Amino acid sequence: MVAPSLDKITSFTPPQRTLMGPGPSNINPRVLSAMSLPVIGHLDPAFAGMMEELKVLLRYGFQTKNPLTYPISGPGSVGMENCFVNMVSPGDKVIVCRNGVFGGRMIENVERSRGIPVIIDDTWGEPVDPNKVEDALKKNPDARIVAFVHAETSTGCESDAKLLAQIAHKHDAMVIVDTVTSLGGCPVLVDEWELDAVYSGTQKCLSCAPGLSPVTFSERAVDYVTKRKDKVQSWFMDLNLILNYWGNTARTYHHTAPVNALYGLHEAMVMVKEEGLENAWARHTLHHQALKAGFDVLGLQFVVKEESRLPQMNLVTIPEGIDEAAVRQELLNEFNLEIGAGLGPLAGKVWRVGLMGYTAQKESVILCLSALGSVLARKGYAVNAGAAEAAALKVYAAQK
């Protein structure tokens, strides 16, 4: 891309898109409005009160009573690194489950924390195999942690977090869990499943702007970190320091918090509370079912088996002879509709269609089916005009 001339640069106005890729999702207007409120100091008593409310709201979102539940100043990737740098000491053995891109990033984090990863690989599009985790823990009784992705964004596959945590705890290991794509879109039950260190993101099913990462740590995890004899390698993410800012009511300055972004997350979580978590989960499932009905009519096959399929992240195989990148480009240029490409071994083979947060609504589903059908028809793919949309509408009608 050629650098623009300085004298031609003016204020930026983004196009209006319908975001149905792997994230971010569209932001609810209430959240955008909240982010435009006047900035106040990050140690202002009014801001401190908002922080306390935000912690309560996030506990509701995670379904936990963990006192240390707060948003990290940075995207989900920072939440991931936060969990690993605090929980993994040099020489620690960590069982890492990899069934997609983000399990691979966990391995990288273990290595950078100078831990020893024991890697369990599963086929992309399939859940983590509990039997493999059990076998790995038996062969590595000194493993301290099991790390896995609950909802793998690169495949749209959900793993059984409750069962994997049970297996880990049976072998006296803690768990680190990625819920970036699952929080707010399907059940995440931190206390019931006894999860130890959990991170997520704001830009997906929470309908908030990118740039914050909600995390929650069990009392057992906090106890381990506070008793570490070595320093956590990251000053910014050291829980021992963060506890003095997010953990206590009498706060000590740690960093300049992203005040307006936190306003947005507060409003997003208020909206989650107003809708109710169970209703939010049901909404994502309903729109997934409608989208699936349309995709079935279009002849698009899902990659993940139904029992492990995420409603908020839909992977379908690309019809033979179709240029997948050209289709995505035409959807963006002509319909202002974004869908995602495949990653890793799925690159060029699948589309990733997100139904997350504010994007999970009937209008998005009908637009996607209509636009995709139109573009595919122009490419010579047999499409019965209007049939996919009709199938989706039939699903909606059945819910009334």
Automatic annotation (TrEMBL):
Which domain of life does the protein's organism represent?
Bacteria
| InterPro entries (UniProt xref) | Aminotrans_V_dom (IPR000192), Aminotrans_V_PyrdxlP_BS (IPR020578), PyrdxlP-dep_Trfase (IPR015424), PyrdxlP-dep_Trfase_major (IPR015421), PyrdxlP-dep_Trfase_small (IPR015422), SP_NH2Trfase/AEP_transaminase (IPR024169)
Cofactor(s) recorded for this entry are:
pyridoxal 5'-phosphate
Q: Which Pfam families match?
A: Aminotran_5 (PF00266)
* Annotated ranges, domain Aminotransferase class V: 86-343
Mention one GO biological process in which this protein takes part, according to its record. Answer: glycine biosynthetic process, by transamination of glyoxylate
Q: What keywords were assigned to this record?
A: Aminotransferase, Pyridoxal phosphate, Transferase
Please name the GO terms that the record assigns under molecular function: alanine-glyoxylate transaminase activity; L-serine-pyruvate transaminase activity
PTM annotation (N6-(pyridoxal phosphate)lysine): residues: K204
> Which of this chain's residues are annotated to bind substrate?
R352
Q: Where is this region: Disordered?
A: 1-25
Family the entry assigns: Belongs to the class-V pyridoxal-phosphate-dependent aminotransferase family.
Q: Which PANTHER family match?
A: ALANINE--GLYOXYLATE AMINOTRANSFERASE, AMINOTRANSFERASE CLASS V
List the protein's name. Answer: Alanine--glyoxylate aminotransferase family protein
Q: Which organism is it from?
A: Oxalobacter vibrioformis
> What's the source species' lineage?
Bacteria, Pseudomonadati, Pseudomonadota, Betaproteobacteria, Burkholderiales
